[in-house]
Design brief:
Chain lengths: ~350, ~200
């Protein structure tokens, strides 16, 4: 820094001088000394010097913007997080090469395509849960607790409407047939349980395929039921229900009302001289417990009335009172004990 | 931001993949960058986003970055580009005109920088006049006196030519002369310092 340099300095020269700016801004002792020396040598520059100084002071008077208290840490955390993410992405990109990724993409497309065309959709309900779904052909299904339904993806539905049931389901099948004398394969709807098969055109029916009971109840329309084990076939009329007996033969019954077979949809169990054993079995179906009775004779008792199946507690409470027993639960087992 | 020249090995460390160097640079400059961004955007979230994107980009592109002796200049210049991109994105949704013509810089004679005995009619008028500068002029002044960038760097950052800067200053001078009758020398000194430096 040469003092002579400032001999011809004007206000604007001072304003543009880095050393001068830093002197006004930071007020360092060494700068103060230097500018004092300059001014004693060039007293005539003092006015311009002071003018420039006040102008820089005004400039520096500009109010600072408020900085949020947590800025430093929170902003850095965000930056660091984004960098970590990009590092992970970077590694994956390195592993790839264009040829390999092309092949992989083709394979993935092929695999996905095959899977898509040949895979099944399975819908499952938990214990105590019901689900309503619409099949690709527009038919409606209500699935009872602890049940599942499987069917092919939409691809095959023009040629065959077929579902598999494990548990219990209520169907409202969409009628597609135009000409009853010419039934095309795609117009048939087939629901298959473990031991029986139901074939319909467009009806409403209930299919129950449980360990203790295999039964079809027809609400409206016409169905053909077939025993998978014996091949025996039956045609049902509305209000009839067909149950597979222990010898795998059909027992067809007609009733005034099919309500007891359908009351599960309202989370109720309608009982008309119903065996306690059947009620217990239904409880096991819906909630997955194993119920142990104090003696086998209790299973043969018959009761009337309605039990709510909405929850295991409400169902157990009613059973406890009707049967006059104490309930003791051990893990998955429920013991009914004589009082 | 201090006036002490930056040790440029920090930048070299960063280019070599040292994440601690990135943090060191962040620690030193983020507050200044926040100040600058806020003055343009007046939006905390937006300013944070821009600074965030800036540092993440520096890290991910570090292998392509050049050496620099002036980290401050590099960061301010890069942040301004981030802000322009941010504004463009935001305006696409609002269908507003892109407006970079905003820069908050409020001068006040009541500040710590001005001594009581220095507050007179002239300082008050000067302050008043400076508050009426255009946003672009305020930004030039901010970059020059707060960030201590030279006029070549400022011209680069603000994408203005010497001719453009001259016009900008001259027009402002004409307008200011009418607003107030203060020493012409002071006004020239204040507003044309940019022009003078280009001609050095």
């Amino acid at each position: 820094m040469q003092a002579e340099k400032y001999l011809n300095y004007t206000v604007e020269d001072f304003l543009g001088d880095d050393d001068f700016i830093r002197y006004v801004k930071y007020q360092q002792a060494i700068d103060l000394q230097f500018w004092n020396d300059v001014l004693t040598q060039h007293e005539e520059k003092r006015t311009d010097f002071e003018q420039a100084k006040i102008q820089i002071r005004i400039i520096l008077s500009a109010e600072p913007m408020a900085i949020p208290a947590d800025l430093t840490d929170s902003l850095w955390d965000d930056i660091e997080m984004s960098i970590e993410k990009s590092k992970r992405r970077g590694r994956i990109v390195k592993l790839r090469n264009i040829w390999l990724s092309g092949v992989a993409a083709c394979l993935a497309c092929f695999a996905y395509g095959s899977w898509y065309f040949y895979s099944d959709i399975t819908v499952t309900t938990k214990y105590g849960e019901q689900k309503v779904l619409v099949l690709p052909d527009g038919s409606k299904v209500r699935l009872n607790a602890n049940s599942s339904i499987s069917y092919a993806r939409a691809f095959n539905w023009n040629t065959s409407r077929q579902v598999t049931i494990d548990g219990e389901a209520y169907f409202e099948v969409k009628h597609l047939n135009q000409n009853p004398d010419d039934i095309k394969t795609g117009e048939r709807f087939v629901a298959e349980g473990k031991k029986l098969r139901v074939e319909v055109l467009g009806t409403t029916f209930n299919l129950k395929s449980r360990p203790n009971v295999n039964q079809v109840t027809l609400v409206s329309g016409k169905v053909k039921v077939k025993s998978i084990v014996t091949g025996e076939e039956k045609i049902l009329k509305p209000g009839e229900f067909a149950r597979l007996a222990t010898n795998s033969k059909f027992v067809v019954n007609g009733t005034a009302t099919v309500a007891p077979q359908l009351s599960w949809k309202e989370n109720k169990l309608l009982m008309a001289q119903t065996r306690v054993g059947d009620i217990i079995a239904e409880f096991e179906n819906l909630y997955g417990f194993k119920v142990i009775l104090p003696d086998t004779s209790m299973a043969d008792k018959r009761i009337d009335g309605t039990i709510s199946t909405a929850s295991e507690e409400s169902m157990l409470f009613v059973l406890k009172n009707i049967l006059n027993v104490n309930v003791r639960q051990e893990g998955n087992n429920i013991y009914l004990e004589k009082r | 931001m201090s006036a002490i020249p930056e040790p440029n090995h920090t930048w070299a460390d960063l280019l070599n993949g040292n994440q601690a160097a990135l943090k060191q640079i962040y620690m030193e400059y983020h507050k200044g960058l926040f100040q600058y961004g806020m003055r343009i955007l007046l939006d905390e979230e937006g300013t944070r986003d821009c600074i965030h994107n800036l540092f993440v980009k520096i890290w991910t592109n570090r292998k392509k970055l050049k050496h620099t002796d002036n980290i401050r200049y590099y960061l301010i210049s890069a942040l301004r580009n981030e802000i322009i991109n941010y504004r463009t994105r935001e305006n696409r949704y609002d269908h507003n005109e892109i407006n970079l013509e905003s820069f908050v810089l409020d001068f006040s004679v009541e500040s710590v920088y001005i001594r009581k005995e220095e507050i007179n009619e002239q300082t008050k008028k000067l302050t008043e006049a400076m508050n009426q500068l255009t946003s672009r002029q305020k930004e030039i002044i901010y970059l020059r006196y707060f960030e201590e960038l030279d006029y070549n760097q400022i011209a680069e950052i603000m994408d203005i030519t010497v001719k453009g800067a001259y016009k900008l200053s001259a027009r402002a001078l004409e307008a200011l002369k009418e607003i107030m009758q203060i020493d012409k020398v002071i006004l020239i000194g204040m507003l044309l310092s940019a022009k003078q430096n280009y001609w050095h």
